[in-house]
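Usage

Read records sequentially. Each one opens with the input sequence:
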Amino acid sequence: MYYYYPDYFDSFRCVGGVKCPDSCCHIWQITVDKKTLKKYNKVKGELGRRMRKKIDKKTGNIVPHGKENRCEFLNDDNLCDIVLQLGENYLCHTCHTHPRHEEVYHNVRERSLAITCPIVCKELLMRESHVTIQIKKDNKIDFFDRYFDNSLYAQLSYIRDNMLSIVQDRQFAIFKRMALILVISHYIQRHINKRQSRLRKSFINKIFSSYPDFLPVEKKDIEKTLTTYSKMSIHMTDKITTGFVKRSLTDMIFTLCTMEPLKNTWLPYLNSIINIRTQMEDEEYNICQKEFNREITDIQLEQLLFYFVYLYCCTATYDGFLLAKIKMAVANTLLIRELWFMRWLEDNKVLSVDTLTEMAHWFVREVENSDENLEQWDSLMQRNPRFSLEILIKICSYFNYL
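and closes with the structure output:
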């Protein structure tokens, strides 16, 4: 078995309590696994009675309370009564592992730390050095579903390694890097859709270099890709207006309003910034964006983009939609940047690391802490014209030349 994980994975420690600016024990549904539920059934005293009363015996769901659906066992100090009275060994699987996340593939486990945790998010945004992906191996063998596409996963893993290298190539502006991985994923998606035979002969892992047995059309695709990487076409900006970018990003923010809100302040906040944006003049928006561009660094956006590409890319093994996964990584990064921009305007053009953390982790929490929301978000990337490849590349070009 192979284990992939970012280099900061093992160093994470939950601070808990009042030291944490947010708690992972509210807003979303917590389900106790069957093994832990059996242990809870043997707990005596007042805590045991609460467990039997507040945990559904059939589903294992903990009955939440309050406006923010706080876990029954989260006390007023934001500490867990189960841990305080019984110790960490009595936590259910979800609570014991969060914010650690694991994607399961045949003989591979890809691990990450979710930036839905504000502590993880803040440390990532403050980091200036490159994140590296570590690999460990043990002697375990995973007997996975026989229909698992090992060939596609191997190709996607190779593609992701190359894309992560591009994401971290700081000789180019971050928005050029975004455009490049979008273009590359578009070319590769064409071959996933139409050239399955070439896919299984390991065609995709060659797209980052050149080989003599490429067809003329394939050589042309690769030439275009590498040209985009080395020098973005300046003439593209002639067709891009500030109004177009402002409206496009506003439309993307509006799509967030169509999903189930986890925090009751999320929709009101989105509606308020949409109203502010619609009242802004295009020239004012452009001037403010130029000023804001000096407030944040490419490295902060790079860390977010790296996180999303690492997390999403290989999940295309299950549905074949690589382009949608990369579009989602880029769109997430652009939208978080836009939420930072709006908050910066609201706070009289002051931006702290804590504010960056708050908005980034809030966005990701709303999208990723609901399976329904994440599935809808993925579907929007596949089909909704608001997230078309052309629009995303134009937005990247606009910000690149601010």
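Summary fields computed downstream for this record:
- The two ends are 46 Å apart (CA to CA).
- The mean pLDDT is 86.
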